[in-house]
Design brief:
ten-stranded mixed sheet, Jelly Rolls, 43 strands, alpha+beta
Length: about 900
């Protein structure tokens, strides 16, 4: 290159075309509504926003032809279209009259000239339909057991059924399905869907999802039958730690089923669950008990073959009883369901007793075993005990599960059968199977992985296989814990939506998967709990448990009320996310402002036994006291609150709330000044001389007005890393920010030393110890294979995986500058033993990607290479700025680029 300080793109030119030379090249793809990834049924939005992606920049004056065909059952389809400027393609407002309940839409978009001549092919058609939008649309009742249920645990679960006669084969049919508890539906002996744990977990006191299913193919002319398995689930099952809490939302379970049929002549018919027409019957089924944490017991001798088929003799069944629920609570889901994602085969099967086997599936995850039961006599029982890890002697480690023993059992009726539990989910890698006759083989089982349906949006690969494994583990921990809500762990007697964990992990989550709808849905429950309890509870939905029964404002955990909406906005650019959650964020900051000392420091101790949680699980904290960290709790609390003040100020500015912006901006200045005066010394040291204290001060910008102090703080942080021998010294609060703080102050060398260390505590120590997910503690397993002696140890937590955000932005080199990736940074940092890396993220505008390698004069990869070769992709509608050390920034428009830079 002529100028070593310039970055000159080579290779492909920016993505633009001559419309007269290529009239079919301006194609459009990826048409979606709201934050759903594709075709969707049962949406609750009458005016959904639409998005699409261009392969090439539309020419000046080009327009978008938006076509829809819409129809309600019993009505005739109507075609509508409109023309829009081609410049906007993300969250475009609905252009037609609002949709009504049950309305079905087929949509497409196409680039055309200003005279409406085609410039490309129409997009693939998008199919979507609304659910039941009005309260009065829900005419079915929740129905369930009609006998007294005195037990609070291990209740025998019921079956519900009804025969239905249709005058002819339906032209179309929809089943609107909800439950108090959990439900699995069958029609004519066949499962309606692969969905699991329906309807999911929400704050049931406020809202209960109702799912929509297309059941046209399952129904016949004449006689049909609907059958429903019911489970306790989160609604009335025992949930949580310290003994848990049963019947929190109610003590009666029930199914709401509303079948709506449309015939060929356009006439319609409804069949609704109820207790008054005597057609709906209930009896005890073969699930003897089912606890989300403890496991499920199934007795095949209690099966009633054909119970969900027409004509089954249900004369011995009882009429159902209604469980009242305010129909105003029923809503259409904003997220996709929990579904099986893939199957794992055993990597080893070991006999450990006369009828006992230990199976290793090779990957810790949220899953269930599907087992082929054969060669069993009636009354024989097979049990499955699921665990994450093994004890040093090779036996299954159950202590860490506490009450949640994850023990399933199947009692045979003497017939061969494939069986999978219905109303539980387990977190495990290993399963011990007892009571198995004969030889156990891989053909007898598979492991079905479950989590909420999410679209993968981010990837990372490097030349360092240990780092690749770490990233792989982080992805698996996220997958394991995005189960209707963002949980902390999938295995022990907890599995709660801890606010602190997702506060830290959300920047990683939004890069890896399209989680905007998923997390925004959960934020609705956070707002409900905030209004109920007067603060942000420790976890959402909130259930009062043990010493955590009374919510109190806790830093970092409560700051999720600001951090999560802001993170979603920065990734999606969706201003509605800020608007919907502004009261949540505003009220949290307003609440904490009342707890500050006159100097702006948050040093008021919460009304909670542990006080502030601070740098939770600092590696120096003793096993039984994870809150006993090196860093002052008041420092951590004030730093996080300062960040919340800054972010809510920006929210108010974006939303045009000028008075709020001024108020919160002044509050931020006060808190920041108090933080500096109280915790930062003139020589750049902190009153807590810890990695956490320096990391938060630098990463949150609290020292940005004092360059000298900031430089000294960065130098001290780097010194602490070197003094530690490259070991991590932070807990939950500091871990996401220690590497960014090092990089922000010019200490990439120490950042890579910290990242690549494999001595405990470190990220790669877990990898070296054989982890397949990220751990809750740095030392969940000790070097000799012994488990941490504390009462709180999990091998599948995503919080410490928050390091992936830095890996994406600094090793890969992609980072959003403007909301929605309208403008982003391309800035890979070279360090450690990494010679090449690649990363990509599907932005609202399409795929952004960077791939780079270091090469020497002979063209071979080398950490000492003096030439950086990069491939960069910038999607249409966005711009990227290449920022490399010792080089002037270079702005790239949409296109594919090859860059060669001398170092």
């Amino acid at each position: 290159m002529d100028n070593d300080n310039a970055i000159t793109p080579k290779g492909d030119k920016p993505l633009t075309l001559d419309p007269e030379a290529a009239t079919e090249e301006y194609n459009v793809h990826g048409l979606t509504i709201e934050h759903f990834p594709g075709d969707v049924m049962g949406i609750g939005v009458p005016a959904p926003r639409m998005s699409w992606v261009y392969d090439f920049e539309p020419p000046e004056g080009a327009q978008i032809l938006l076509k829809i065909r819409r129809r309600v059952p019993g009505g005739k389809p109507t075609d509508e279209n409109t023309y829009l400027p081609a410049q906007q393609s993300v969250m475009v407002p609905w252009q037609f009259n609002q949709l009504t309940s049950r309305e079905r839409v087929v949509a497409s978009v196409q680039v055309v000239t200003s005279q409406h001549a085609p410039l490309g092919k129409p997009s693939e058609e998008l199919h979507f339909e609304t659910g039941l939008l009005q309260e009065a649309d829900h005419v079915a009742d929740y129905v369930g057991p009609s006998w007294p249920e005195a037990e609070t645990d291990h209740r025998h679960l019921p079956l519900v059924r009804a025969d239905v006669t249709l005058r002819e084969k339906p032209a179309s049919a929809r089943l609107y399905l909800s439950a108090l508890g959990l439900v699995e539906a069958e029609i004519n002996g066949h499962k309606v869907s692969e969905d699991a744990l329906t309807p999911g977990w929400t704050q049931y006191e406020k809202r209960i999802p109702c799912w929509t299913y297309d059941v046209t193919d399952e129904l016949n002319a004449g006689g049909n039958a609907m059958g429903f398995w019911l489970g306790d689930g989160w609604y009335r099952g025992r949930i949580g730690f310290d003994g848990g809490y049963a019947n929190y939302y109610g003590d009666r379970i029930g199914v709401l089923a509303q079948l709506e049929v449309e015939y060929a002549d356009g006439t319609t018919e409804k069949i609704c669950s109820n207790s008054w027409d005597r057609q709906w019957k209930v009896t005890s089924g073969p699930i003897v008990s089912s606890d989300m944490y403890e496991g499920e017991c199934y007795d095949a001798r209690l099966e009633q073959p054909g119970w969900s088929t027409y004509g089954f003799d249900d004369s011995a069944w009882k009429p159902v009883a209604e469980s009242f629920c305010d129909p105003a609570k029923i809503e259409n889901p904003e997220i996709l369901s929990i579904r099986p994602q893939e199957k794992h085969e055993p990597i080893s099967i070991k006999k450990i007793g006369e009828r006992s086997w230990l199976v290793d599936f090779g990957q810790n995850c949220s899953a269930r075993i599907r087992l082929h039961l054969h060669d069993l006599a009636s009354g024989d029982t097979v049990t499955l005990h699921h665990v994450e890890v093994l004890e040093p002697d090779g036996s299954i480690a159950t202590r860490t599960l506490r009450r949640g023993q994850q023990l399933d059992s199947y009692t045979s009726n003497g017939q061969d059968a494939w069986w999978e539990p219905r109303f539980v989910m387990h977190g495990f890698r290993y399963v011990q199977i007892d009571g198995w006759p004969g030889e156990l083989t891989a053909d007898d089982m598979d492991c079905r992985v479950y989590h909420s349906e999410l679209k993968r949006t981010g990837e990372l690969e490097t030349s360092n296989e240990m780092l690749n494994k770490l990233h792989h583990n982080i992805v698996w921990s996220m997958r394991s814990n995005f189960m209707s809500i963002p949980t902390d762990c999938p295995q022990r007697d907890e599995r709660l939506g801890w606010t602190g964990d997702i506060c830290l992990f959300s920047p990683t989550a939004v890069y890896l998967y399209d989680v905007e709808a998923f997390l925004n849905n959960w934020l609705q429950d956070m707002r409900t709990e905030q209004l109920k309890w007067g603060t942000i509870p420790y976890y959402v939905p909130f259930v009062p448990l043990g010493g955590w029964a009374h919510p109190s404002a806790i830093s970092e955990w409560g700051d999720a009320a600001v951090a999560v909406p802001w993170t979603l906005y920065m990734d999606s650019g969706d201003i509605e996310i800020l608007r919907e959650n502004y009261d949540l964020s505003h009220d949290w900051v307003d609440e904490v402002a009342g707890y500050l000392s006159p100097d702006g420091v948050w040093d008021r101790k919460p009304e909670f036994a542990l006080g502030q949680l601070g740098d939770w699980l600092d590696p120096t904290a003793p096993p039984e006291n994870p809150a006993l960290a090196m860093t002052q709790k008041e420092l951590v609390a004030t730093a996080y609150f300062a960040r919340s003040c800054s972010e809510v100020t920006r929210m108010a500015q974006i939303l045009g709330k000028d008075d709020d912006a001024k108020h919160f901006g002044e509050l931020y200045k006060r808190v920041r000044r108090g933080y500096i005066d109280r915790f930062s010394n003139m020589d750049g040291t902190m009153t807590s001389d810890t990695q956490c204290a320096y990391a938060l001060s630098i990463a949150f910008g609290l020292l940005d007005d004092d360059d000298v102090r900031r430089v000294k703080a960065g130098n001290r942080l780097a010194e602490l890393v070197r003094d530690s021998g490259g070991k991590v010294s932070t807990g939950f609060a500091g871990t996401p920010f220690v590497l960014p703080a090092l990089s922000m102050t010019g200490h990439d060398k120490e950042a890579f030393i910290l990242l690549e260390s494999d001595e405990c505590p470190s990220w790669l120590y877990q990898v070296k110890m054989g982890a397949t997910t990220t751990w809750e503690r740095w030392d969940s397993m000790e070097p000799d294979g012994a488990l941490n002696p504390g009462g709180m140890t999990s091998f599948n937590h995503y919080a410490l995986g928050s390091v992936a955000a830095w890996m994406h932005s600094h090793i890969g080199g992609l980072e959003a500058i403007d909301p929605g990736w309208k403008h982003f940074r391309i800035a890979p940092h070279m360090g450690g033993d990494i010679t090449h890396a690649s990363t990509s993220h599907i932005t609202p505008f399409g795929r952004a990607a960077v791939s780079w390698k270091l090469v020497d004069a002979e063209g071979k990869e080398s950490t000492d290479g003096n030439r950086l070769e990069m491939d960069v992709t910038v999607p249409v509608g966005a711009t990227g700025t290449v920022e490399l050390a010792n080089h002037e920034p270079c702005e790239l428009k949409a296109g594919h680029y090859q860059l060669t830079v001398n170092r």
